[in-house]
Amino acid sequence: MKTIKVYVDTSIIGGIFDSEFATATKIFFDQVAEGRFHLVISALVEEELLAAPDKVKEFFDEIYKQALIIEVNEDAIQLREYYLKANIVTKKSSNDALHVALATVNNCPIIVSWNFKHIVHFEKIPLYNSINLINGYQPIAIYSPLEVLRYE
């Protein structure tokens, strides 16, 4: 079984404590522990979790050890700006665009998110990917955890 490199945004970390998303999120992290996925987490996630409840921070501290941590860099910031100029999201949601950019410039084939408004959205995914292609990046697959779980 090949391990799949997966970027997770902040919504996935908090999803473990959300009644609507907890079951699928727990299964996702179980599959991470089994080696199906290799987590990629950015410094942006760490920053966004500063205001999170303690239980979310404690969970993050547990999974942090299993993850590749990536820094916010100039390439990702530039790509985010291209997303904003293309009006994929507004400036108010620039961190959401930065998550997509970070995953893209770090060659993650997949982003997993519970953010259906700004990331996992059928109208936005092709727009992110068109900007990626125009700027020399590979397209990126964007899914909710429900779409990447192995069901057996």
Structure write-up:
The chain is α/β, with parallel strands linked by helices and 152 residues long. It has a single domain (4-148), classed as Rossmann fold. Helices cover 49% and strands 13% of the residues. It has a five-stranded parallel beta sheet with strand order 3-2-1-4-5, sandwiched between helices. The longest helix is centred in the first third of the chain and has 12 residues, at 22-33.
What are the main properties of this structure?
five-stranded parallel sheet, single chain, 5 strands, Rossmann fold, alpha/beta, 152 residues, globular
CATH class: Alpha Beta
The poorly predicted ranges are: none
Report the sheet with the most strands, covering strand number, pairing sense and barrel closure: 5 strands, parallel
Task: Please state how the strands of the largest beta sheet are arranged side by side.
Answer: 3-2-1-4-5
Strand portion:
5-15%
| Count of folded domains | 1
Q: Tell me the name of the CATH homologous superfamily.
A: 5'-nuclease
Task: Describe how the helices and strands are arranged.
Layout: E1 4-8, H1 10-15, H2 22-33, E2 37-42, H3 43-48, H4 54-64, E3 68-70, H5 74-85, H6 94-105, E4 110-112, H7 124-134, E5 141-143, H8 145-148
Parallel strand pairs: 1-2, 1-4, 2-3, 4-5
Helix pairs in contact: 5-6
